[in-house]
Structures
1.
Amino acid sequence: MAIFAPQYPNRMYSFATYKEQYKANLRLALPVVLTQLGQILTQVADNLMVGRYGGSDPTPLAAVSFGGAVFFILFIAAIGIALGMTPLVGELYAQGDREKSSGLLQNGILFYGLLGVAMAAVQYAVIPLMYHLGQPAEVVDMAIPYYRMLVWSMPFIMLFFTFKQFLEGVGNTKVEMFVTIAANLANIGFNWVFIAPMLMIGYFYSRSKYRVYLEGFSPRNYSWASVRQLLHMGLPISMQMFLEASAFVGTGIMMGWFNKETMSANQIATTIGNCAFMIVMSIGAATTIRVSHCYGARDIGQLSLAAKASYHLVLAWNALAALVFITMRNVIPTFFTTNAEVIAIASNLMVFAALYQLSDGIQNVSVGILRGIQDVKIIMPIAFVSYWLLNLPAGYLFGFTMGMGPSGLFLGFSFGLSAAAVMMIVRIRRSISRLHANGNSQSTIRNS
């Protein structure tokens, strides 16, 4: 895939060229995959139980869909801010600067923890607004208790992500895997959100090479300069994730404008889509780590190879996912419900979900590359154009104006994700070219 053609004008694809890159990326990605797998399996199991509990009644599954969607929109914005720590720590790790890394971690613990409390307060305050989003009243009534349980988890989730993103920055993705698996094994209701951060903190204190990052930890060390650095990196990532998530959440809310059956079908299709997306997210996370380390070492040649290897991996995976979605579209929904109308709608949605798989993979890895080289300001306007100016309006146009129904809403994703993929690739090509030019200039100066 000729993403960075100006640097390699005559180079054809060779597996030997990328073999070590694939291995390096997968070594980082696979623990993240297992981490995501633990979380996704819990989500799938919950949806299977809720769907089977409802039988032919779509209300319980529709309630989970609606409550989860309202929670997710602010949840993902908060997580996006925490993700800003990874590329910052990754660059410092490659440069061997432990002091600055320690400052980022300690300030992150305080700042992200307080952010989780503030976000939970905002999420709790929006509960009365849930009755004004055009959803059936009985669905909202059933969704609110589920939503409240999710809201209480926010401070603990943010504490977990603080340590998780720091460890990813130093190239350690295995700990989050073991912590998540252990927390899921001990899962009772939502207790995992209390267990996971405690396990993560315990790991830090039990390992001397990580415990040193917490030496002298005190609220007195709170530094606005460090918080500003975290916000400078995290806010654009947060807004990009918020805008992308809003396309999915907005589509889910518009599904409720049809009926409960459509809401239930959307929840099934979204859950299966998340199962495929966990691999995409894992490759994207590994890409950020590899690219940030190469960026910190100013090794732009390795950076380019690592980035292109991630594109190869994600395209192979998403092609397989699309094939499974299409071939298994009439079977998978039957695991969740016995309602014939819900099964029929979900089957159609899975076909349209298959259409945007490749674009989704490309744009996610592209975001990972841009995070790694700390070129994050551009991703927010790209996301705004892609998801708010293209995705949601196109979905409404096809779904309601042109009468395509739920499938038309899903068709909007193909427009939004494809636009994001194209614009981000254009930005990456420019950024990599600039990094190469700067590297060549510095090399000339050193040799003169």
Note: The chain is about 80% helix and 0% strand.
2.
Amino acid sequence: MTEDDIIYYLRKNTDQKNREGMARFGINASNAFGISMPLLRELGKKIGKDHKLAVELWKTGYHEARILSSLIADPALTTPALMNKWAKDFNSWDLCDQCCMNLFAKTPHAMDKIKEWNDSPDEFVKRASFSLMATCAIHRKEWSDGDFENFFLLIEKHADDGRNFVKKAVNWALRQIGKRNRRLNKSAIRISEKLLKFDSKSAKWIAMDAIKELTNSKIQSRLKS
């Protein structure tokens, strides 16, 4: 499929009801067609990996075209410069998270970008740092406990960031790291208890929500087994 074929397909499948729903969930729908993720994933599988096409689709600026870019781009060909360029274009939490899950977490640059983007003043670039932490906690089985324990310092440092899309990503990262294994679970709970003492509404919210999930009987039972 060509770029024109894909944009035609997206326009043809525009769903105004879904588009309105996106806005209700805090998704920037100003340049969106309202295409569901299952449909985008199906299209991505049909296209397969096509890095050049992914780059061209991103340039269109369409929301779903950019998510599709993250599905068909080749992690091995995704450079740090391209990651920075795309991250600067993030204007919605779902685009940020889809890029992190579908592409960025699979590149050899994920660790570097977690550390680099952590101090970004841009809300969605900073979110990408913690979204990457969360997705790598799920998918990067080769990373050590020590790698993830180092992230606790970053979580502590930025837990007082009250911006909605940042604090939710910090919470997500803390929870996912804490669900990786028993050792990290205990460490994540300990960090959460520390955050509870911070003079910050954001830090307290992150901590309480994380503790609630990480001490859940189902989570504890899975980790013990």
Note: The chain is about 70% helix and 0% strand.
